[in-house]
Structures are given as structure tokens and as C-alpha cells.
Amino acid sequence: MSQPRMPRRPNPEELQRVLEGFSGATGLATVAVDTQGVPVTQLCAFTEFCRAMRSDPLRSKACHGCDAHGGLQALLEGTPQIYRCHAGLVDFSIPLTDGDAYVGAILCGQVRMSEREMPEPLLAQSDWHGDPHLEELYEQVPVVSRRRLEAAAATLLGLHNIVDLALHNTAAARKDPIEESDRGDESAKRTLSLVPQARSAAADERAPEVQRHNPTEVITAAIRREDLQSAFLEAVTVLDAAYAPGVLDQTREGRARLDEMILAAAKVCSPRIVIHLRQLMVQERQRGDVDRYEAQLAAERFICMVLDEYQRQHPRRHREIGDLLNDIARHPEQAISLTEAANSLHWSPGHLSKLFKSVTGCTFVSYVTGRRVERAKLMLASTQMPVQKISAELDFSQVNYFSRVFRASTGMSPSEYRRHCLSREERHTGAAVPGSNKGRLRA
User: Fold this and answer.
1) Predicted confidence band at 366 (pLDDT cuts at 50, 70, 90)?
2) Domain region containing 47
3) Which of 169, 197, 222 is where one domain is finished?
4) What is the rounded distance in angstroms from the CA atom of residue 279 to the CA atom of residue 289?
5) Rounded to an integer, what distance in angstroms lies between the CA atom of residue 178 and that of residue 324?
6) Assign residue 99 a region: left if phi > 0, alpha if psi is -120 to 50, beta otherwise?
7) Per-residue pLDDT tens over the stretch 143-156
8) Domain end point (choices 169, 191, 226)
9) Where in this chain does the record put each HTH araC/xylS-type domain (predicted)?
């Protein structure tokens, strides 16, 4: 029997980058903690009052207890929790999970509220009143409305949903028990302690290669996270293998296999559309053999249908940055501007710019341009469409500008890239490859 897969560790460096961007954009304090409430990232934008409280060993333990309870409460309730900490300030918590395992939480806030809006205390209140220094620092803590904190919680929850997969993908699998550190430095980057994940006997019996990677599970999880880009990338991997130089039956089988994966995800996430979706897939296959680009478009259309139905069944009140990333993934050919994107979220361009970079690691313009260039690469390698038409399809104002952007990204002009892809496939097959069966390229 194979060993159960242990939950993976979120990467503290990745969390740090996201939290710094969020704190910089909102002015709110943030920190990520393990299951015991001990910080695993540096303290971002912490108030002087909280730093002073945590400098005392006894009060610091109370802070850890509040953070641990806040994370667990959010996990149990299934939604961000706004609460009053032991020192009288207001925070909110969002749990960090790996599958069914609770691995810690993100805490944010450290603000005061009016008595009318003040939430109930999470734990017994600490006796710090009477200390002149702490009282002076407490009066310097900003006062915010509950509505503002709720909006910040919704935004951070959206960021958490987006970065969750990236954090897990960059984390190493747990191999040995985590050694407890005796250091009292809270800013030290410690490893998240993990809650063991319950697994069924059937899961334990799965082959190791299935445990490592199951495309159907990846697509299903991406739809549940409302993460189109991750679902699309999994479809890219399957289609790359299907359209690798070889016999035509391999391509047909690969497309049929991807259809079944998407249908399996729909059965879990959006069961009401399964019959209709299957009918559309049959109609698509009846068109006959299609090139790699058209196959990608069909897969993306089917995945979007599953996500759209899932979102209808799980409506949200406000648009989040994840919705914007989905819009870009859904329409990579559109040259959306930062201002247009900010307006769609009812944010300022500056606010969106900071949060976007904290999530993706790049500027908004470079991200959108990158998606358009990737789509251009697929079109050049998979179709006979003229370069000028590809430029127009991808919303470039002039073909010369498109060529400059493409060369800056790939080191080749569009025509050179197309010739490179064709010659590479000819080396694999010994003959020119028809345009309807051009090869592997990540969209």
C-alpha cells in the first residue's frame, strides 16, 4: 500500500509577497500564522501598539492564541471572521488550507471601531490598561468602519483564492516532522505546521503516479476556485500531448480524453449542464479533424460553460480580482487597459495596480501583453493564418507594433517563429506537417 500524500506547505516567501502588496494598498496590518497562531511571515504594517504588546512574552502568547482561534473560527464558519482580539482591536481571519487540511490562517486588521460596530471579543480581554505607554499607542491606532473591513476581507479572500495554487505548487512536499523552534523572534519565517489530512482507503490504494497528478482533479479544483487560467493550462497539457507529431488517431483520442475530463469536472461542479455539454462535444467532434488552435478554443469554451454554471449556483455580491483574471483568460485577444479593468472592479487604477502585482508578480500591462503573445504563438504554430490577420485578431493596432512586441518576448519575429515551429516538426516527422495537425505549444 502506498503512503498517504501529506499536505503541502504554503511557501512563506510567496505569502510574504502577497501580504506586503495587500498591506501597502490598504494600510491594514497582515500576517500569516500556523495552526498554533505563530507567525510564519514577517509582520506587515503592524501598529506600534501591537508590536509593543507582542514584545511582552505573556501578552505575545495571548496574541498567538487569538490568531489561532480566529483562523479556526473562519475555517468552521466557512467565511472570513471579524472579531475583537484580546487587546481590544479588531481583526479578520481567512484560513489557509491544503485540500481538507487546515494549515494556518491570514490575519488582517489591527484597527479600532466605534462601540456601535465593535464585534464581540474572541477571547478574554488582556489587562493592559493603566500602562501609560500602551494607552498612548492605542490612541494612535486608526479607527475604521466595519464596512471598510468587510470590503478588505472580501478582497483578501479573492487574493487568497488566486494564489492558493501557486503557493502549493512552489512548496516542497512534507517528508519529516517539523521541528519546533525555540527562537522567540516572531519575524522569523517559520514553516507552517500541518493538520493531518483524512484520506480514504481507496485513495491510499491509488497508484503513485495518479496521486501525483490527476488532470481531471486539477480541472475540477480550478473550477471550484473559479480559476480559469489553471483549468486552461491543464487543457493545454493534454492537447499538447494529443497534437504531438504522430498518428492522427492519437490526436482524436487525446481530444476525446480531454472532453471526458471536462465532463467529469462538470458532474462534480455543474451537474445540470452535463447532458447539454456532452451534446455540444459530440457536435464538435462531428466537425472532423481540427487544428491545435481550434481544439484549444473548443476546450476553453467548454470549461467556461462549466465555470459559468458553477458561478450561477454560487453567486457573489462583489467582483474580485479573480474575476478580472478570468476575464483576461477568457478573452486573451483583448487589449484591456488598466483603467478599464479598474472600472470593472470599481477600484482606482493605482489600487488595482498594486494588488495585481502582488498577486501575479508582474505589472498589469505586461500580464495582459503576455497572454496575447502566448495566444499569438499558438496561432502561428497551429494555423496558416497570415501574420497581419493574427495581429488584428489580437487587437494590435499595427502589424509592425505586433512584431516588435512579439520579438521582445520571444527573440524572433512572428514569421521566424512560425518557420521555427514548422522545421522542428519536420525534424520529428521527416516530412512537412499539415496545418491541421501542427504541434505542441502552450497557449
Assistant:
1) very high
2) 12-169
3) 169
4) 18
5) 38
6) left
7) 998 888 888 888 87
8) 169
9) 322-420
